[in-house]
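Here's what a typical entry looks like (Histone deacetylase):
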Amino acid sequence: MSSKRVVYFWDPDVGNYHYGVGHPMKPHRLSVTHSLVLHYELYKKMQIYRPYRASAHDMSRFHSEDYIDFLQKVTPNTVQAYNKSLSHFNVGDDCPVFEGLFDFCSMYTGASLEGATRLNHQCCDIAINWSGGLHHAKKFEASGFCYINDIVIAILELLKFHPRVLYIDIDIHHGDGVQEAFYLTDRVMTVSFHKYGNYFFPGTGDMYEIGAESGRYYSVNVPLKEGIDDNSYFQTFKPVIQAVMEFYQPTCIVLQCGADSLAGDRLGCFALSTKGHGECVKFVKELNVPLLVLGGGGYTVRNVSRCWTYETSLLVDSPISSEIPYNEYFEYFAPDFTLHPNINTKQDNANSKQYLETIVKAVTENLKCLIHAPSVQMQDVPEDFFRTQMEEEKEPDPEVKVSVQEADASVEPPNEFYDGEKDQDKEMEQVEA
């Protein structure tokens, strides 16, 4: 088992939604990822939960009630009655109305929220929700294939217990929704590594976006150019995160692992390998701070699933073979059937060493403007509706040895993960904070 306690959230329905013909966002990538996690037997190294489903009340902790009400009511059959609302809430081409939209939002948001709560109660060291990480959604509207910003909602939960939360984003797109939500506070530092320039979506994330008011210098942006490779990326990522850790000293980290920064992504223009992308995840894990790991972008299904499966193995300290095990999606990985395909890109790395060094220097100088890691006054912690459930889950005695056979027997077969008495998808009474 991993030296760290890892929980992993999976709802078997979350990969069944469809944005529409031709749309680049494909929730099916989640089913392919989970299949690989099972067939590599990584499920034996962590606790798997069918997560809580977020309610409209949970979503309204960040989003406006009018917007949430709209998402609950609109369907492909009723969309004509909401013509004015569609443009008002930015729902249309990029963020279409599809069957089960609100349920989909409820699943990925509930998993991130439960991950945050389990970290708060020290039930785990790392929580993984590959269905989450939808970082573009705004308070009043959808944006960039994202409807509910599960990241913001999870961070708000973490702030009940943690004085300082660090958000790190390695999606190719700027984490604009999360930055905007916490732009005026020092309780959350947002750090985003992303493609910037040439009208690349969402058009924000300049190096000089540093926060305002109490949040001045607590927004960190690393604008990158096309073609960045593993070596250049990590030589930028490592010193920036080291400086952030030194000056900010977070007590919890949220890591968004958007896989559209991989080479060959349908919407991307970077040249990262799965190993290069994973190196960032490994580095953050080794900081030994409570960690919530989320998915995000990623539009070439076979590459997304390879990447997040590999990163799951890193998070549970379990090396896995580069040969893809036979599974129901095996043909997706032709012709090489490998976890780490060769990078074939004709695109030059437009990021010069001097350019990257300038960014790192500028970020470090800004961080020096922080006098010290901010603290918060002691106060009563609001109740949450997972407390009772998790207090009842007793940790096994570390002194008692368990045989391999007993450990394997405690894990349900792949098709029966969620049918036993320990099924986590039970109605949980909400307690108003």
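The longest helix spans residues 101-120.

More examples are in the samples folder.
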